[in-house]
Amino acid sequence: MAEYILEQLKSQPSWLLLPITLGFLSLLKFAFSILKWVYVNFIRPGKNLKKYGSWALITGPTDGIGKAFAFQLARKGFNLILVGRHPSKLEEVSESIKSKYGSTQIRNVVVDFSGDLNDGVSRIKEVIQGLDVGLLINNVGVSYPYARFLHEVDDKLLSDLIKVNVEGTTKVTQAVLPGMVERKRGAIVNIGSGAAIVIPSDPLYSVYAATKAYVDQFSRCLYVEYKKSGIDVQCQVPLYVATKMASIRRSSFFVPSTDGYARAALRWIGYEPRCTPYWPHSILWALAYSLPESFIDTWRLKFCLGIRKRGQLKDSKKE
């Protein structure tokens, strides 16, 4: 069969061999991409995260993805440093984890990421002093209450978006890194967003998307900076997850629960510098990349205008 195909190719005009070869190489590349996708999503084992250290620090652990990370890491035997702004909520999550995983050591650090960040980071440094912090989950973040044009964003919200999403992630990372560098091991996971990476634009959420684009580039640079120091840095890019921030209550095939996302996320730590851990999201990512950007821009604008209208109606009812 191979000889027959070879003879047929030899009989073709030389000018036709180039497009045939390019077509074959393109097909081979596509087949390889499919096989790689299957491997990393369904076959490749997760790394032994305990090799990074025995403690994990999680920001924003009292709800949503951060809370799910806390429970999943406790299940894997990590001790936890939980960093959030509400003492009562931190205590509630801590007690829930201890009731399920009694051997877990937990230290709570109260930090208002929209407040005095320098003071909060100082408290984090005090708590982690002498601890083998091997894993950092930068999950804390804020978004808009609902879609709105930039000129409608008030000063407080604008300040919070930049301070929490950009400055908070940066300073907590800077606080944890020295210990990892000294021990020559560690992993940092920054939670990004499909709003900054997957779709070409996110109108009416411009500042939020821009802050998450910062997180993505920040992560990639650190990945290169610290790879030889034994520190793995990764930006995880989820699409919609059933959280309060996303205003989605029920999970579905394309919208995982927070626990479903966290379980998938742990399998990816230590691998690619950017990833979307929940595999159905990668299908949506591929679909977005296959469509014209102008089409996605138009669709997204209409979608966000609908969110804005519903948000304004809720505000008017409150008044």
UniProtKB/TrEMBL annotation:
Transmembrane segments annotated in the record for this chain: 16-40
Alphabetized SUPFAM superfamilies for the sequence: NAD(P)-binding Rossmann-fold domains
Superkingdom: Eukaryota
InterPro entries in alphabetical order: NAD(P)-bd_dom_sf, SDR_fam, VLCFA-Steroid_DH
Pfam entry (one): adh_short
The keyword Oxidoreductase is assigned to this record: yes
Keyword annotations: Membrane, Oxidoreductase, Transmembrane, Transmembrane helix
PANTHER family: RH59310P
Family the entry assigns: Belongs to the short-chain dehydrogenases/reductases (SDR) family.
Protein name in the entry: Uncharacterized protein
